[in-house]
Specification:
Bound molecules: pyridoxal-5'-phosphate
Number of domains: 2
Number of strands: 15
Low-confidence stretches: none
CATH class of the largest domain: Alpha Beta
CATH architecture of the largest domain: 3-Layer(aba) Sandwich
Strand content: 15-25%
Shape: globular
Length: 456
């Protein structure tokens, strides 16, 4: 007899994961190492320590330790807003008339409004433990900057955020939340850094990009005593911290003997998806179980579905290590898109390798269809989803409707990464029918591919 499944499956405090799971340990083909952009040799710990906190640099390089203890201070912080609920979307299933069973893991239940706090608190903790004065970072849509400012205020660290200029202007509320938590917020590109000055000289009037804000934040960290740079996605350390999402999900599902057939997540830099799927992919890699895994990205920024698997720069200023990833090239400029958190040109090297090895598939979806799914979801499940998260909702609904046609009772799990309260201009565009669905042509993608570094 299967147990009755409640609307929300919570974990008791003692059931919560006490270790992160490092999926790289179970990968036969390890993700390619970060390279020094000058020498093209793998980055050493000493080189990484110059930019990142020492403990985080070690995590970045660790391809072999499967489980890494979550320090007690981080566990205690997690207890304030975790476990996050795993919700059975009974209302959505009913509305769709599907025999599929739909579950979502909701990460929007904290003030920052997204999963990003899971890694922000870990990164702030290691910075504090190292005796640093502060950290610098970039933020695009603002979710990462918000999460990091919360984490830094908790550990009494300085937090300096370079915010992509167009977001700085369009999202004043996000900016003010960051300042409420004590962060200083600078619109990027700025005149505060050499790389910012250079970019402004070459492109006066630019409204900035994530790649450019990264360059400024790295420069500020490496030229200020007692500071390091922290990043909200893409890196393997971030993916590691986000595995708390997947581990909680797995424990909750195992409690009720639920096995997902399909696991879906939106992919920007890949951290939430990587975190959600890691424990499941681990089973897949070890040959214990099989799952269909789908990464969803915007058609306007299609790194997995149309990108190249190559070494690339992580930032516009080319100051960061080179990473091998599915990428559109650091010179790619996506068209205006409301899912700011999914506009990065590259993809986590862990996910890129898993995708290349066929452990995961990818789909790209158009913006209007994503917002239609978001609205459909909001109206029955109550939660107002972030545009990024709604990419996963869209494909979850597509899959549930396929089940309706075939009569299959598949179990679908998706990651609902956050809430969309700061995205109401995007919703307004959708309601007014003024949303653009521009998909780059091959010609549009060419300059990005031409910007890839020559590796010989
Ligand atoms: C940042 C963000 C994403 C995308 O980032 P990943 O690193 O790919 O997870 C998705 N959803 C929300 C709500 C975000 O803030």
């Amino acid at each position: 007899m299967s147990k009755e499944i409640p609307y929300k499956i919570y974990l008791e405090e003692h059931e919560m994961p006490k270790q992160w799971y490092n999926v790289r340990a179970d990968m036969k083909n390890k993700p390619a190492p970060l390279l020094n952009p000058g020498t093209k040799q793998p980055m050493t710990l000493e080189e990484l320590e110059h930019v990142f906190c020492t403990e985080l640099a070690k995590q970045e390089l660790d391809d072999t330790t499967p489980y890494i203890d979550i320090p007690e201070e981080i566990l205690n912080f997690y207890k304030m807003y975790r476990p996050s609920p795993l919700v059975r979307a009974y209302c959505l299933e009913k509305k769709l008339g599907t025999p599929a069973k739909i579950y979502y893991k909701f990460e929007g239940n904290n003030t920052s409004g997204s999963h990003k706090l899971n890694s922000a608190i870990a990164q702030a903790y290691y910075a504090k433990k190292q005796g640093l004065k502060g950290v610098t970072t970039e933020t695009g849509a603002g979710q990462w900057g918000t999460a990091l400012s919360m984490a830094c205020s908790y550990f009494d660290l300085d937090c300096k955020v370079y915010m992509v200029k167009c977001s700085y202007e369009q999202k004043p509320f996000r900016r003010e939340v960051m300042r409420t938590y004590g962060a200083s917020v600078t619109p990027s590109p700025s005149m505060e850094t050499e790389v910012g000055k250079k970019i402004l000289l070459e492109h006066p009037g630019t409204t900035g990009s994530l790649g450019c804000a990264i360059s400024e934040a790295v420069e500020a960290a490496t030229t200020t005593e007692g500071y390091r740079y922290v990043l909200g996605s893409v890196l393997s350390q971030v993916l590691l911290h986000q595995t708390v999402i997947g581990l909680e999900t797995k424990i909750a599902m195992d409690k009720y003997d639920i096995k997902p057939d399909i696991i879906i997540g939106c992919a920007g830099g890949g951290s939430n998806l990587g975190g959600l799927i890691s424990p499941f992919v681990g089973e897949k890699l070890r040959g214990e179980n099989d799952y269909q895994i789908i990464a969803v990205e915007p058609a306007s920024c299609p790194s997995l579905t149309r990108g190249k698997y190559a070494y690339d720069f992580c930032d516009t200023g080319k100051v960061c290590p080179l990473a091998k990833m599915y990428t559109l090239g650091s010179g790619f400029i996506p068209s205006a898109n409301h899912a700011g958190g999914l506009r990065y040109h590259g993809m986590s090297s862990v996910l890129s390798q898993l995708y290349d090895d066929g452990y995961m598939e990818a789909r790209s979806v158009g913006q209007t269809a994503v917002f239609a799914a978001a609205e459909q979801f909001a109206r029955v499940e109550g939660i107002l989803p972030a545009p990024e998260s709604s990419h996963a909702i869209k494909v979850a609904i597509d899959e549930a409707l396929k089940c309706k046609e075939t009569g299959e009772e598949k179990t679908i799990l998706f990651g609902l990464t956050g809430t969309g309260y700061f995205d109401m201009y995007a919703y307004e565009n959708f309601h007014n029918g003024t949303m653009s669905d521009y998909i780059p042509t091959d010609e549009d993608l060419k300059p990005g591919f031409d910007s890839l570094p020559k590796m010989d």
